[in-house]
Amino acid sequence: MKLFTSCLALLALVHHVSAQTWYFLTFTTPAGSYITSYSGSFVAPPLPQAATYYLWPGLQPPGNAGVLQAVLDGRSGEWWIGDGYCCSDPSLAWGSGFNVPNGQTVNFGFSVNSVSSGTWSTSLSSSGGGSATGSFALPTHQMNQAILAIELYDVAWTFGQFAFSNVVITANTTSTSWCTNGPSNYQNAAVVTKTTPVAIVSGGTTTCKISSIVLVQPA
């Protein structure tokens, strides 16, 4: 996790904040293999106040140059979600987004047109009718980490659980242990519940399915 925490330090500098707390889970594919799609749903928890809450699923490459992420942002006092690539190498414009009331379900999707060219298509939709799409050219960043994260600045985790369902990760490998043994829990900082991941291998590709995975509360 050393390289990943280096990237997190970069994020802290970008956001210009003083106190940073992280809770995140990571599925990491074997060396030389890469994620080609990542999708699922989550419920927007009650937002306690206008503050820097960033809750997100995302993807990261082996070199940890940045994060392709769908960020539920609480700074305005109402959740807003959009897709973007943070924070540099390359510098890309943030995608469009929409507001998400407490309790609504958000569906997210990331897919790459090919591992070699690296243009990622993103999609977001909500049970309230919000939707957004994006396109991010990342030809030098083949993603090998699928992440579920709670990123907090100067606030505590007081909003209850961050619950995901129907999570599906596809990677160009026949290995299954990255799925069935995952995810890793950063510093065991979060209490986590999950259904047993199911790995399906077909044509040189493994599809990892998790019906439910919940960051319940701080450990």
Please tell me about this protein's structure:
Residues 1-19 form the signal peptide. The structure is a single chain. This protein has two helices and 15 strands. It is mainly beta. It is globular and about 45 Å long. Strand 4 and strand 5 (80-87) form a beta hairpin. The chain has a single domain (2-218), classed as Jelly Rolls (Sandwich), CATH 2.60.120. Strands 2, 7, 8, 9, 11, 13, 14 and 15 form an eight-stranded antiparallel sheet that branches. It is 8% helix and 52% strand.
> What is CATH's topology name?
Jelly Rolls
Whole-number mean pLDDT: 91
Share of helical residues: under 10%
Distance between the termini: 19 Å
As residue ranges, the low-confidence spans are 1-17
Which geometry do the CA atoms define?
Answer: globular
Structural class: mainly beta
Number of helices: 2
Bin the strand percentage. Answer: over 45%
Q: C-alpha Rg, in Å?
A: 16 Å
Q: At the first level of CATH, what is the class? A: Mainly Beta
Provide the succession of SSEs.
Answer: HEEEEEEEEEEEHEEEE
What's the main sheet like? 8 strands, antiparallel
Number of extended strands = 15
Tell me what the CATH architecture is.
Sandwich
Domain module count? 1
Keywords: Signal
Signal peptide: 1-19
